[in-house]
Amino acid sequence: MTRRAWLPMRSRYSPASRASANGALRAVHAPNEHDTAGVEPFDDVSESTVPNRIDGHRRSGQSAERAHNGTPANSDTQHEPLGPDDPLAPLPFNPYKGNRGLTRAWHAMKNSLAGFRVAIREESAFRQELTLAAILLPCGVLVPVEPVSRVLLLGSVLLVLIVELLNSSVEAAIDRISLERHELSRRAKDLGSAAVMVALGMCLMTWVLIVGPLVVHWVKARL
Predict the structure, then answer these.
(1) Catalytic one among 47, 164, 171, 180?
(2) What's the pTM?
(3) In terms of CATH architecture, what is 123-222?
């Protein structure tokens, strides 16, 4: 008698009866394929959980991608300050860059004169070309040619000095980095020497084409 009274109460409060009362079957673990055929779809599933799952998968995917790329997962952290060797780091403060007007012109003139003194004292090639310029510049002023031709004569001589100064600055910068023999250092110095040779060739061509006919005419007149 007692067992018969207990069985209806057990079936009344079983999980299957509660699911049928709510109108949905929340979870069924089917041991085989035949038991899954009678499972009905849920009718009270909250749709708010779906975006949460999507966001969770999306965040986990972003975290995995950041870990794969080597970036930290927390991208909102403040970046570390750039080191002095970083190419994007700000340049150190230069007191001469803040000068303006006559003060800047004064400092620029002093630096230029210092560069001339160093070139004359240390660079033998510049001394030779400066001696050649001391001879050709007065000749370019006194030779009887048109103003445009005179400018070409004087400018070709000054161009040689300019290119030689640039070549000397490149050599000084390379020696500052390293004095060892390196292919790239040799290439840079050779390119600077080639630029000087081109400037010398341009100067020679200008003087031969402009002054050459005048010299030939003067020699013929003397003979």
Answers:
(1) 164
(2) 0.56
(3) Orthogonal Bundle (1.10)
